[in-house]
Amino acid sequence: MKFDFIVIGAGSAGCAVAAGLAKARIGSVCVLEAGPTDAVPQVKIPFGLLHTMGSKRDWNFKSTSQSNANNRVFNVNRGYMVGGSSSINSMVWFRGRADDFDNWQQPGWRWNDVERDFIEIEKLIQPQQIPTPHPLSVAFAKSFLANSDAPPTPDRESAGLFDTNSRNGRRWSAADAFLRPAMRSHGLQIITGANVNRISFEEGRARHVELVDGRTLSARCGIVLSAGSIGSPSILMRSGIGPAAQLSELGISIKVDSPQVGQNLSDHPVIGVHHEGRNSGYGLVWNQSLQWALSPFQWLTQRNGRLTSNFVEAGAFFRVNPITDDDDRPECQVHFIPYMMGFKGKSITTGSGYFADVGVCRPVSRGSLTLSSSDPRVAPNIDLGVLKEEQDVQILIGGFRRLRELLDKAPMGDSRAPEVYPGAAVSSDDEITEHIRARSGTAYHPVGTLAMGEQGTPVTNTLQLRDVDGLWVADASVMPSITSANTNAPSMMIGHRAAKLILREVKY
Question: What are residue 100's phi and psi, to 5 degrees?
Fold first, then answer.
């Protein structure tokens, strides 16, 4: 099979870049997706993320043992279907801060460059609040300003109901916004079940994509790698592009010695608190049986009710350290979930309650990704580098304390419930630190493993892979540093902008 362009990965960025190329009518464009279709109820119903995370539509990656987090292994959930992680996530929509992009210090990627791209994709996504948020979420949203209806923002201390990529009570993923319209109107093709092994080259140019099942596809003009911060560096390394010494040990022939491939891995570390009490949040309790029984009919007939919930309905941003002349940025983000979340080994449990976690907006800890085998069916080594730097730990300690204050002061009325975990036994800095190392997680926002930048980085600021013609990278892996909030919107922006950059370079 031959196409003018092949896009590897139908995720958040891949859908956007593929649609941009197809709309330009530059020739045939094909998207390869390793997983199945997203056309199942548990994807379309926002509440269904409870059933998709950890399912066969999740890559179900695991981290290596994290030495600064009691040697625990973390889940690294990534969407394994059309739409990628935009089909499995909690749909929270944040651009990030303007200085997130300015601080990348990359020509063409400053805020003044990317703002228009966000505006353009938001015309397709139309971010909005869910139709029927839980009263507890509405109450938490008033933690800073009692009469504000605006969503919170990482630009300042704030709280509110989150904007989401949902529409009419259903998930509106990158596949809905970009991929399907381009398939209908511009001839974009998609092949599911197309797990990529490697890219091969002719005379220094990326020409072929070899699948795990033995099929080979060819690209006349170029290949765009949009398999995400885990998949993209893995495919490159299997293709012979990466740290030469590591690849040689695995018997992989070296195409380009690029030591930074797989480095600079970053994610938002988080730590949570659990509250439980009768008549508080959603939960598996007898007096909510009727509401649960009616919820499918509410969703089908009216597109409202509890099945329209994205779980993470509200949140906040705040500082931990005193404001200085050089820095007044919120350091922490809060996700508020009006559901009873288990804390004894199972995430789903009986009872009524609510949960909130606090994360570091701009962590300084870095991890890395390496291949554990040349076999594409073997998962890579994912070292998240969680809590490697003491600065992140200190911000989480302060953030944990302030989260408790917010939950105590939020106007929850009779729906307020007591904290049941970790509870009053964890109060000193040492106790909170121990709790963080024992129970922290991440926000499932891995970025940075193919960071763009100056000479020595894997990718140029025009998203071209160095020392190879006809190969671009367009996904969250190109971020030099993580943005200050959820990364789904920036990933779509990168894909949308990538199409423009590619079209400037390609003669057609």
Answer: -55, -45
Same domain, 217 and 347: no
| Same-domain status, 194 and 64 | yes
User: What's the pLDDT at 345?
Assistant: 76
Residue holding tokens 């797989």?
262
Calpha distance 95→154 (Å, rounded): 9
Q: Let me know: does 169 contact 304? Beta carbons within 8 Å.
A: yes
**Residue 147 has what pLDDT?**
78
How far is residue 276's CA from residue 281's CA, in Å, rounded to a whole number? Answer: 8
Partners of 32 in the β-ladder: 8, 191
Give the pLDDT score at 145: 85
Query: Which CATH number do you get for residue 397?
Result: 3.30.410.40
123 with 152, same domain? no
Mean pLDDT for each 10-residue chunk of the chain (508 residues)? 97 98 96 97 95 95 98 98 97 98 98 98 97 96 88 97 96 97 97 98 95 97 98 98 97 97 98 95 94 95 95 97 91 97 83 97 98 97 98 98 97 96 96 98 98 94 96 98 98 98 85
Q: Which domain holds residue 66?
A: 1-127+171-267+366-386+445-508
Q: Do 423 and 450 belong together in one domain?
A: no
| 484 and 377 share one domain | yes
Catalytic residues: 445
Rounded alpha-carbon distances, angstroms, from residue 393 to 154, 270, 429 = 20, 10, 10
What total of structural domains would you count in the chain?
A: 2
Q: Quick one: 285 and 418 in the same domain?
A: yes
| Residues 141 and 36 occupy one common structural domain | no
Asked if 473 and 465 touch (Cβ cutoff 8 Å), the reply is yes
- Concatenate the DSSP letters of all residues of 239-305 into one string: TTEE-HHHHHHTTPPPSEE-TTTT--BB--EEEEEEEE-TTSSBEE-GGGHHHHHHHHHHHHHHS-S
pLDDT digits over 302-344, tens only? Answer: 999 999 999 999 999 999 999 888 889 999 999 999 999 988 8
Q: Measure Cα distances from 420 to 288, 345, 353, 393, 417 in Å.
A: 21, 15, 10, 23, 9
